[in-house]
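Continuing the series of single-chain predictions for the mutant panel. This is the parent chain; the variants come on the following pages.
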Amino acid sequence: MGIEQLKKLNSVINKNISNNIKKLLEISGISYNKLLKELKESEGFTISQPYLSKIINYPDNNSMPLPYLLQCCDFFGVTLDAIVSSEFPIENYCVGEKSDFKKLLDTKQIIRSFDEKRNAAEEANLESAAYGEIENNTTTNSAFVENPNNILFSSFLQTYYCYFYPTVSSENKELDSLLTGDLTIKPDGDICKAILRIDTKKKKNGSKAYKIYEGTAVISSTVNNMYCMLRSEEIGEYCYLIFRHSHLNFALQDCHMAEVLSTSSAGGKKKRYPTALRMFLSREKISDEHLKSLAPHLWLNYSQITISEEELKKVKQISDDYSEIVKDLLEKANSERMYLVQERDALNLAKDHMDKAASIKFISDLRRYSYAYRYNKVSDTVEATVRELLISLGYYKDDDKMD
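Parent structure:
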């Protein structure tokens, strides 16, 4: 059988499954969300909402994984051959009558059995490691995990694609101003090595010129963060990355939003100022067409969104759906006239009325009454939002199947 014939067969089966699940949902009177909620409660692990949506709405390119198809069969009380059939006997299906139906898959029992075996193996390894440490008199109670062989590092040892804004204000005015690079986290004996390469968008001997920082990665087991402490001997500069740590047993991490502490890259030694920024780390490369959707999440955002009426109207014109949302926002959101003031302009105006010392005091008082936040953080919300955005655009498909 050729590739085209196999593709056609898959498409037909996928469409049958999609149509039959739609019929079952309709006759049962429940929504996708209700289905997923009940599956998660009964099975523990199930398909995610974005992935189910792609399977139902775009069956030509998305297949239902067999474990989750069996979960659907068990939930609705139908056989596997019925749910894949092009002639689904919907007239024989009775809502709520599943007493004679034999369950096809017990996800919780399978996962429970697997976890018990895995935990037993991990406990045996920990006991062995602890015994070895006692023998070598190297026992430690440190909250910092530095050895890359520790299981907490297992889902982070990879190369991430990096995306961030330049630390020069003039460069940020360009439409394609996002900078790119890669961060590699790998074992190096008993330490975890971290290497950050930044594409300078310049050439050196006909090849791309990179700024390269090297150092170590450390996990804090108490505050659940990873710290990369890097430096460049060539530039004479340190760079620090901090991002959330969450352990996955069987897969590499998809992405992270990191906070970066570095120095600005403006020319001249006197202009190298301490700088804080966000950097997005992804195990998959983000296409140019999708970077515009990612870019706003790299700004130093806060929970409150400040936007001018003119820009809000531009958002309204993007689509009919957006138009209705913006209409509701304009009716419900608090509106207040705001003034955008350049500090340099305000200082020069103040000097027309008072001496330099008093002018600086005026700027301090002006800032004291201005609208500003005291800090910026990467919350769970922004990481989840960006990951779900990229999943909807087709990224991380291999890890998107389990919720």
